[in-house]
Design brief:
Blueprint lengths: L27 E6 L3 H16 L3 E3 L7 E6 L4 H17 L3 E5 L5 H7 L5 E2 L5 H11 L23 E5 L1 E2 L10 H5 L3 E2 L2 H13 L4 E5 L14 E2 L2 E2 L2 H9 L4 E4 L12 H5 L6 E3 L7 H7 L5 H14 L4 E8 L6 H14 L3 E6 L17 H24 L5 E9 L4 E5 L10 E3 L11 E9 L4 E6 L2
Parallel strand pairs: 1-2, 1-3, 3-4, 4-5, 6-9, 9-12, 13-14, 14-15, 18-20
Antiparallel strand pairs: 7-8, 10-11, 16-17, 16-19, 17-18, 19-20
């Protein structure tokens, strides 16, 4: 039983969970999935295709005929982590296929690890399959290799990520994701709804809607309507809300039409939770980032959201130490955080990323200053979180159970996304609970990031 750390990296995916029975002689692959939840969905799609062709999925290196490493290229530190993972897979298994965002730079990978079998870029599913076929030929048995209706999942059975689009039309100077994953490409709304229906039918209790820019969903296809479903985030959220599962929205840019989502939250169709990448608050820093510079208006917008839906939880991530950031600009960010009173906050120190336009900006901030600002930012965010959670003591709320062990049931409230937010622990009378259960609790204790509560029967 652990409490939520305050320094989670915003590009970090939940850990993959693999469990698959392997028949004698079945070709077997391992998967290492790095990066954000969007990359985790890519890993699931790759494994689903491979499972359909008769491959088994190994949870360890030793049991695999080859290993696929799905890489991250978001930050230089993430690239280094990807290279380390590739090196570990080579050392432990020897036969490695690389895919994902860092795969857009094949020379960078092969320069460090020339023995990899193949390198493919992000969401290049066919190329990954071709590389696997060449390394480990398939040997399907149609009588026993049955694919579950929901495909292969790397998350617990009671929640699932639902990717609604790929790519991004923004041109933020610190980010190279659009260069790697391309411009916005939205999935047809009916396809998203059908996938969600299948997941709910299979027992999924929570759908986590993800993309690079969820608010822009459908813009590229002119919000096309097909089979009674319109490709617009408001319509999609409403349709998903009628499926009976929790619906959580991630990576929502604060466009004006986002306010149309708030009544859906007030009505209980969608969880009262918005994950919004604000990144900073000072208008000059936002301009240097090539992001919309309307932080003051955003505070007013947040107040309007809370007036419509007082229970709304707001999560965001920020960058400190961006090139040119002055002490006064950083203080503006701290003051803005006081005004906005966000519920869940992540922060990372600026890093140069190969190919990013921010690398050439003047006045880069020294590492020691970035560390100091990160410490001060997280201290303020921690105090806000602690006060908000303390105010929940005595309240009765619904939670979803994620894990049960000998010490407690680890749960989440509607305010907590898996792996990145806090937990609520039930440490008495939890013996009969199991993952996916929805139960009522009364909160009786709070820390900086987590809650404890007792189960309420009935």
């Amino acid at each position: 039983m652990t409490s939520n750390p305050p320094n989670l990296r915003p590009d970090q995916a939940p850990r993959a969970r693999i469990s698959d029975a392997i028949r004698a002689g079945q070709p077997t692959l391992g998967m290492v999935s790095l990066g954000c939840p969007k990359a985790l969905v890519d890993s699931e799609r790759i494994l689903t295709r491979l499972r359909a062709e008769g491959y088994a999925i190994s949870p360890d290196y030793a049991g695999a005929d080859a290993v696929i490493v799905n890489t991250c290229g978001f930050l230089d530190s993430a690239k280094a982590e990807s290279l380390d993972a590739i090196g570990e897979a080579l050392a432990e298994n020897g036969r490695v296929i690389v895919t994902g965002c860092l795969g857009a730079e094949p020379d960078y990978i092969t320069g460090a690890h020339p023995k990899v079998l193949a390198v493919t870029g992000p969401h290049q599913y066919e190329q990954v399959l071709d590389a696997v076929h060449a390394a480990v030929p398939p040997d399907p048995d149609p009588f026993v290799d049955l694919l579950p209706a929901t495909g292969v999942s790397l998350t617990p059975r009671h929640y699932s990520y639902l990717k609604i689009s790929e790519g991004c039309n923004h041109k933020c100077k610190f980010c190279i994701i659009p260069d790697m994953r391309g411009k916005l490409v939205s999935r047809p709304a009916h396809a998203v709804i059908r996938e969600a229906e299948k997941l709910v039918e299979a027992g999924v209790k929570e759908l986590l809607v993800i993309s690079q820019d969820t608010s822009a969903y459908g813009v590229d296809i002119k919000h096309a309507q097909d089979r009674d479903h319109r490709a617009h985030i408001t319509d999609l959220a409403r349709d998903l809300g009628h499926l009976g599962a929790w619906v959580r929205l991630h990576y929502v840019y604060p466009y004006p039409h986002v306010r149309d989502l708030i009544p859906l939250m007030a009505d209980g169709l969608v969880l009262p939770y918005l994950d919004i990448p604000f990144q900073h608050a000072h208008p000059d820093v936002l301009r240097r980032m090539a992001r919309p510079a309307a932080a003051a208006k955003t505070v007013d917008e947040i107040a309007a959201w809370r007036q419509i839906c007082p229970e709304i939880t707001l999560r965001s991530t920020f960058i400190v130490g961006y090139p040119g950031e002055t002490e006064q600009e950083f203080q503006t960010l701290l003051d803005w955080l006081d005004d906005a009173q966000l519920d869940r906050v992540g922060c990372f120190q600026y890093e140069n990323v190969a190919g990013a336009r921010s690398n050439t900006l003047p006045d880069h901030v020294p590492d020691e200053v970035k560390q100091d600002r990160w410490d001060r930012f997280m201290q303020k965010a921690q105090a806000i979180s602690a006060a908000k959670l303390e105010a929940k003591i005595g309240r009765r709320i619904q939670v979803i159970v994620d894990e049960v062990d000998g010490e407690a049931a680890t749960c989440r409230t509607k305010s907590d996304a898996p792996e990145i937010d806090g937990n609520l622990f039930i440490d008495e009378g939890f013996d009969t609970l199991k993952p996916g259960d929805l139960v009522m609790v009364e909160v009786d204790e709070a820390s900086d990031y987590d809650l404890w509560g007792r189960r309420i029967e009935g």
